[in-house]
Amino acid sequence: MNQFLFGLVLLIGLMLPPVARLMESVMIIHMHMQMPMLVIAGFFMAHLFLQRYPQFFNKYNQNGVPGILLFTIIMAYWLLPRTMDEALTIETVEIFKFVSLPFLAGVPLRDSWRRLSKTWKNNVITLFTVVFLGMGWLYIQSNDQLCNNYLVIDQVILGWGFITMAICMVIYLIYIFAVDPSQYE
Amino acid sequence: MIKNRHTSVFCILILVFGLVLFYIGTDGFTAYTAETARVTKLIEEQPVFPEVLMEDSEGRTYSISEFEGKYVFITFIYTGCTTICIKLEENMAQVYDLVPYEYLGEEIVFLSISFDPDRDDPATLDRYKDLFKSDGETWRMARIPEKTQLDSLLNKFGVIVIPDDRGNFAHNSAFYLVDRQGTLVDVMDFTKVTEAANTLRQYVETDKKGE
Fold first, then answer.
1. Is B151 exposed, middle or buried (0-12, 13-18, 19+ CB in 10 A)?
2. Chain A within 8 Å of B40 (Cβ-Cβ)?
3. Could you tell me the keywords of this UniProt record (chain B) (predicted)?
4. What is the ipTM of this complex?
């Protein structure tokens, strides 16, 4: 219950108009701080749903694949330059952001991550590494303004943010691949 | 891998949901940036050029009705701009040269509108127009002194202008074509000069055939 409340308070806090406006005024904070925090809020709130409806998750998300698929689709959707712009200019898109990221990405991620096999987990991380490298490259090399609401310089900063995240994930993957924890136990 | 029937059915449902979501979100997989979506929507909606007062490089003031009966080929600029506007105006000059001479001023008027009225007074616009060999008559440069009127026009035509901290503006650029009745009928890629000139010529020629 505590976890659910924590997630809910986080979500409401992020939705407060002054907070939302502040975070959305900088492109990289919009995408790499506000959006992940919304997913995290859903991740915490998932606790309640998993306790209350375990049979639903067991039935429909037995191996975790549907959940991670939904998570990936929602994340990919919010990577489009257009959705970022429209979140700022169209109210329904903004509301969809505050609903979809916690409940359609955060909740299924939590349930799926404990069900997924190791191979699946590594595949998902690899997929996001490749996508982030691609997005980083797109934002850095593009001289055109991809988002009408942000300057090109913000776009380049965001691009390097993507590359940085991708590098972190690569380091993690190398670590997983090279280190066998059982040797140290 | 998937043993449970419900789980596999759910997988397919989610994929369908994803397809629908992306289909709606990108106007049927066509517009991945807000700019593409904006242009498509503008051409569909065909907004009317609002009744705003313009002041041109010679200090004359008028509204869009000054050009009634003529096509108006429009760009949005500010003279302090050192990057994209110059490219935009250079391309506009090329279109100007490509359009048949007898159409200029008769069938088509070129108009560059500044969205920086504080700095772009008639004298500044007059100097700026010479850079691109604009004659101030068949190709005019004007500002909209009244801020609320300027905003109403920018808003209607979907021009987004963001001031940065060095006194410059970031903005989206395109060629806009307003028809003889003052309605926006086309938004063209400003990097495709020949294409834009051909489109212009076609508009005028189609009208002539209709007469």
1. middle
2. no
3. Copper, Disulfide bond, Membrane, Metal-binding, Transmembrane, Transmembrane helix
4. 0.85
